[in-house]
Amino acid sequence: MLIKTPLVSAALESEVTPEAVYLSRRRFLSAAAGALAAGATTAYADESRYADVEAGASPAWFASKLPQVHWQAVTAGDEALTPYSDVTRYNNFYEFGTNKGDPARYAGKLEVEPWSVMIDGEVGKPGVVSLEHLVQPHRLEERIYRLRCVEAWSMVIPWLGFPLAELIKHAEPTGAAKYVRFETRVAPEQMAGVRSGFSLIDWPYVEGLRMDEAMHPLTIMAVGLYGRVLPNQNGAPLRLVVPWKYGFKSIKSIVRISLVAEQPRTTWESLAPDEYGFYANVNPQVDHPRWSQATERRLPNSLFKPNVMPTRLFNGYDEVASLYGDLDLRKYY
Ligand SMILES: Nc1nc2c(c(=O)[nH]1)N[C@H]1C(S)=C(S)[C@@H](COP(=O)(O)O)O[C@H]1N2
Ligand SMILES: [Mo]
User: Fold this and answer.
1) 96, 209, 252, 257: which to mutate for ligand 1, most atoms within 8 A of CB?
2) Buried b (16+ CB within 10 A) or exposed e, 5-20
3) Dihedral through CA 135, CA 244, CA 159, CA 164, nearest 10?
4) pTM of the model
5) Does ligand 1 have an atom closer than 6 angstroms to the CB of 92?
6) pLDDT tens digit string along 208-217?
7) Which domains does the chain have, with CATH numbers?
8) Does the CB atom of residue 247 touch ligand 1 within 6 A?
């Protein structure tokens, strides 16, 4: 494991557990758990698997969650993880620019501490909650998911998060709640892409799910990846991950979650409704008007190793098919 000086840029120093301290603590806890544990079920992830992960800050709210993580709660079978360097340097986060390298280069500017989220709409318990309070009731799980971008590339990413369903239940939705609407933070002074006059996007970036999609156990709120806190370019400190839908549904850096009665107007659907639908379920049989969706390029790839593979319906997550039993997937793409 690479140990570097922790980056304490955004967070208060007193609230950050330096990486070296965290690692030694984790080894200690791990050994202690082993000693206790005839019945212990949770094994710690093999650290060597994450050997190429850069060390970074671990805010207190995150570090305190790590000893209870349910590692590998969902895996991607024998599919190899996309290396950390690709996961964190090849990104779409238009608030920071439209080039794949822009988020890694510029998202460090985003101040993620303190962070709060507004929960409103058709709920019994509306309010503004700090990130710490929002995450506190939930046990983190590692979910190793395929991520299929509508641009026909894909990755396999080990997220850390908790089911969105748990958060929704906490908010006590009313009977009128039929959809969930999410909004990304808008901070022009920290986001060059938002300042740019060339952007077509009407900020904030908005996404949405039907209530049953939001409640599906595969749908998570992610706060980490590769065993550590989410890098800003991947949507720190809180982002959605819906593995059977195109990547653009998995909205980053969320500041507002609203339970609503009507289908929300979402960013990409509003921009180009013939190209991007509200559902955006991964589907090799419904092509994008300008390219085929039948195959995908699994990163990392190169000219000599294109790594092209067939795309699967629902990105291979067949268990969600029952959500769409009576829906024409060609019409509701
Ligand atoms: N706020 C916001 N969320 C976003 C985007 C964005 O531009 N802004 N891009 C989306 C797209 S197109 C993809 S493929 C994924 C990429 O996530 P990753 O960079 O963590 O792999 O984030 C999605 N979430
Ligand atoms: Mo995407």
Assistant:
1) 252
2) ebeeebbeeebbbbbe
3) 10
4) 0.87
5) yes
6) 999 999 999 9
7) 72-320 (3.90.420.10)
8) yes
